[in-house]
Amino acid sequence: MKLKILSYNIHKGYDWRKKNYFLKEIKAFIDGSGADLVFLQEVTGQNIKYQKKGLVDAQFEFLADSLWKHFAYAKNAIYDFGHHGNLILSKYPIAKWENINLSTNLFEKRGLLFCKLHIVPLNIYLNAGCVHLNLLHRGRQVQYQIIKKYLVSLNLDPSTPLIIGGDFNDWNKRSADVFEKILGMKDAYKQSHGQYARTFPAASPFMCVDRIYTKNLKILNSQVLQPISKTHLSDHLPLLCEVEVQSIIQ
Predict the structure, then answer these.
(1) Degrees to nearest 5, angle at CA 131 with 25 and 114
(2) Span 6-52, pLDDT tens digits
(3) For residue 162, what are the β-bridge partners?
(4) Which residues are CB-neighbours of 216 under 8 A, at least 6 positions away?
(5) Which of 20, 108, 151, 166 is a good FRET partner for 44, with 20 to 30 A between their CA atoms?
(6) How many helices (H) and strands (E) are present in the chain, helices listed first?
């Protein structure tokens, strides 16, 4: 059975210049991507300033709508006029979910949104996490260890399918020290192309900051998606991969 996974930092609905609000276009893009599982970062849950401008601020509800019956939103950054965080959209039931606080300083409120998904056709469970990590390496080093300890604490069966995707801000390509070398995961794009995906900034991407790591899944392909028009909907480009889930995995 094949699954398509999409990871996208939507920049709270604004383009890379923070001038145009493209939430409707982002929704159309996600819905048309063919993805079965979507990891979104910088999703606004509430914003009074947006409301005053007549903009959609409950973005997780708007993006989920009728197509995505199963979704989980976790707010990480909370401020006077609202909050934003990570969102997972799934075509399969979410058996349970939790938000792990990854914040290491007062200025960057980060988290790991972790879900246990029931892949009904195969009657198996898949674990999926959506992350948004720090800008500085020293903060990410701490976050890598928090994530590693959390995954170890779950005591998952060694054959359980696992996906961790999102905006790692991993410009120096050091997340591999934990995710690949210790946790035994594979970066989908790197596995397919021999190098990490360039996704930022959207207008001229040269930084490899977004990742989709997998374990116990066969990686079929991966690609960085370009907008249909010349307009970039966010400051990141979306990352897509296709994997195969086997029924023999329990």
Answers:
(1) 105
(2) 999 999 999 988 889 999 999 999 999 999 999 999 999 999 999 99
(3) 127, 215
(4) 159, 160, 161, 162, 249
(5) 151
(6) 6, 12
